[in-house]
Design a protein that fits this description.
binds flavin-adenine dinucleotide, single chain, FAD-depend_C, oxidoreductase activity, 3 domains, FAD-dep_OxRdtase_2_FAD-bd, alpha+beta, 28% helix, Alpha-Beta Plaits, FAD/NAD(P)-binding domain, FAD/NAD-bd_sf
Length: 513
């Protein structure tokens, strides 16, 4: 017999099989020897009361042997099958490619950036010298913005597709199977590059193609149908289906589509700052303790507050993380965050952003939200004084309107400069943040403190442009065979939801092309 049951267990016992089996036998009122095996289905930390516990949903094998689950996808060879061009090798592009193979189609992935290994050198240049390679950076290159990201795999997109399959594919390519059970699964920046490389190898072994340094610079369209793409302004590639998975930073793609008269629309997004605290402040607040137990991971938080008609919220929270310089153009500052798999840096950061509505940026230019975003990033660069030095301010100083005499030690490697952040943030954003931060402090003890730094600007939260598509066929309403995909098209946010959208686009190609 098999039985599903929830148990709670102390953090220090959560890694002990013996203790788990003991708790299962107590909960099921059976003797230890009857438990022939168990499988943890979900694991979460419950820190609501003073005694922090782990909750585990477990499938128990009682008086019958445990059967191991096996998940392996065997990819068929598609070398001589129908070609599908996929623009962008981010999570969406790579999962679209894998799904094309499953569907018996040959994916040809075109990526403007470099492979993960070579990309690492450009990231070192960004961090050490403040120099941005506009084709190879934290957003561009193999694996897209997902490779040197935090690798948090939590998503609410469960209605859009099979989250478990995406996670299983990550495991098949080298992620630990903890991600299948943890309530907040996380891979870590140090592990992602190997996983992305393994996914590329699967695509190549199945007869697909992945090309780097291949920037799509034009679309070939005849009588409202896609016929192919132009690469690097010279080479033409024919195809009857093009999945456009270029991410939300590819302003040249939005500009190109708009210039060609292909419908794109302004889209609301969110903008603000990255906030960093010493991790011990967050641990103390969330785990109700002076010092975090060695059996608990660095603590996480999620905060939201409505200020008038506007939402202010934290997102992409990175316990034990680093603030990353994520600009894609010269002379702009964009920040984001990542953490290694062990989350063992002394700081906790999160994007803390304010909703920006279409009414905030009046006009009818479909690119106006994008231009608004770009202007703020340029102002932040100027305010930092160059070389990717980011403008910063202590939290209470920002709210009370004074320049910080100095800035706390922080994780942003190119350096921070003390400024009045309201000089780079539009009034409605600065004032919403000023209202929300003390309220966050009431929700989470210790949060509202001058030991925290605000670093500007967190501007690439989601796409400021939508590339529309038909609900059923996923094709652009004006260009048959063009499949706007994932975050760049405004249909996903985050690694897993982008991957799911890639899968959905590949399925739409199979069905409708
Ligand atoms: C530092 C950082 C940390 C993050 N942490 C997390 C996290 O923990 N969890 C999470 O869920 N999300 C995180 N994100 C967000 C996540 O990475 C994105 O949501 C996700 O990568 C979007 O996937 P995508 O495939 O739609 O686009 P992208 O990942 O942006 O990929 C698009 C790809 O298209 C390529 N491209 C663009 N234009 C062209 C062109 N003209 N021709 C050819 N190629 C082109 C780009 O080079 C890029 O590789 C993070 C992002 C960053 C930057």
């Amino acid at each position: 017999m098999q039985k599903e049951i929830e148990i709670t267990i102390a953090p220090e016992d959560a890694g002990s099989e013996e203790e788990i089996i003991k708790q299962l036998s107590i909960a099921l009122k059976i003797v230890l020897s009857q438990i022939r095996g168990y499988k943890i289905l979900k694991r979460s930390i419950d820190a609501r009361s003073r005694r922090v516990i782990f909750r585990m949903q477990v499938n128990v094998f009682i008086d019958e042997p445990q059967v191991a689950d096996v998940f392996t996808l065997n990819y068929q060879n598609v070398a001589d099958k129908k070609r599908v061009i996929i623009v962008g090798a981010g999570p969406a592009g790579l999962f679209a490619a894998l799904q094309c193979i499953e569907n018996g189609m040959k994916p040809i992935v075109l990526e403007r950036g470099k492979d993960v290994k070579q990309r690492r050198r450009d990231l070192a240049l960004i961090n050490k010298e403040g120099i941005v390679n506009t084709e190879s950076n934290y957003c561009y290159g193999e694996g897209g913005a997902g490779t040197y990201s935090d690798g948090k795999l939590y998503t609410r997109s469960n209605k859009r597709g099979d989250i478990n399959k995406v996670l299983q594919i990550f495991v098949q390519h080298g992620a630990t199977d903890d991600i299948l059970v943890d309530a907040r699964p996380h891979i870590g920046t140090n592990k992602l590059p190997h996983i992305i490389t393994a996914i590329r190898e699967t695509i190549l072994n199945a007869g697909g193609e992945v090309h780097f340094g291949q920037k799509v610079t034009d679309f070939l369209i005849e009588s409202g149908k896609i016929k192919g793409v132009v690469v690097n302004d010279e080479e033409k590639l024919d195809a009857e289906a093009v999945i456009l998975a270029t991410g939300h930073s590819a302003r040249d793609i939005y500009t190109l589509l708009n210039k060609k008269g292909i419908l794109v629309e302004a889209k609301p997004f969110a903008l603000g700052v990255r906030i960093e605290h010493p991790q011990e402040i967050i641990d103390a607040a969330q785990y109700h303790c002076a010092v975090r137990s060695e059996f608990l991971p660095p603590a996480y938080y999620s905060l939201v507050e409505q200020v008038g008609s506007r939402g202010v919220f934290s997102f992409c929270m990175c316990p034990g993380g680093i603030i990353a310089p994520c600009a894609t153009y010269e002379n702009e500052i964009v920040v984001n965050g990542w953490s290694p798999s062990k989350r063992n840096n002394p700081f906790a950061n999160s994007g803390t952003v304010v909703q920006v509505t279409l009414e905030d940026v009046p006009g009818d230019d479909p690119l106006r939200m994008m231009n608004f975003q770009s202007e703020i990033e340029k102002t932040a660069f100027a305010l930092g004084g160059g070389n990717l030095v980011a403008p910063g301010q202590r939290m209470v100083d920002f709210v009370e309107g004074r320049v910080s005499a100095d800035l706390p030690r922080n994780s942003y490697l190119p350096g921070t400069r003390s400024v009045m952040l309201k000089e780079t943030l539009p009034d409605f954003i600065a004032s919403s943040l000023k209202s929300a931060l003390p309220v966050f402090g009431k929700k989470m003890k210790g949060y509202y403190t001058n030991e925290a730094i605000l670093v500007g600007v967190e501007s690439r939260s989601s796409s400021p442009v939508r590339i529309p598509r038909d609900r059923e066929t996923f094709q652009h309403p004006e260009v048959a065979g063009l499949y706007p995909c994932a975050e760049g098209a405004g249909y996903a946010g985050g690694i897993v939801s982008a991957a799911i959208d890639g899968v959905n686009c590949a399925n739409a190609v199979l069905k409708f092309n």
